[in-house]
Design a protein that fits this description.
Elements lengths: L1 E4 L6 E6 L3 H9 L26 H19 L3 E12 L2 E10 L4 E9 L2
Antiparallel strand pairs: 1-2, 3-4, 4-5
Helix pairs in contact: 1-2
Length: 116
């Protein structure tokens, strides 16, 4: 069991978790190559904050999130990962992430992405 991270503040939430919540959060929030202990951990989602707000950004954000979460499938902690994007307004994108854990539980996560 790990201390649960609050996805809104990034601080410890005070509880504990035995799900993939922390793993998903860290992989999406950490810039790819930005963690000293594992250069493969992280995503390229931070690059979208400098990108022009166009229709192709939705697909790119989904691809970046799927790439970041792929190690969860490779190490056997997740059996399936699906990512979809919804526009929340100009310059804002909401990623809806569904992770099927190997134990059979399906977890849903949401992640906000800012676009220039």
């Amino acid at each position: 069991m790990d201390p649960l991270l609050d996805p809104v503040t990034g601080d410890y939430a005070g509880g504990a978790t035995n799900t993939l919540a922390n793993a998903v959060y860290l992989r999406l929030m950490t810039p790819l190559g930005g963690w000293w202990a594992d250069a493969t951990l992280g995503s390229r989602l931070h690059e979208l904050s400098r990108s022009k707000d166009s229709s192709r950004i939705d697909l790119l954000a989904c691809q970046y999130a799927e790439q970041a979460l792929q190690p969860l499938q490779q190490d056997g902690r997740a059996s399936r990962i699906q990512v979809s994007a919804q526009r929340q307004g100009p310059g804002r994108l909401l990623l809806s992430i569904e992770v099927a854990e190997t134990g059979g539980h399906i977890r849903h996560f949401q992640h906000q992405v800012r676009i220039a």
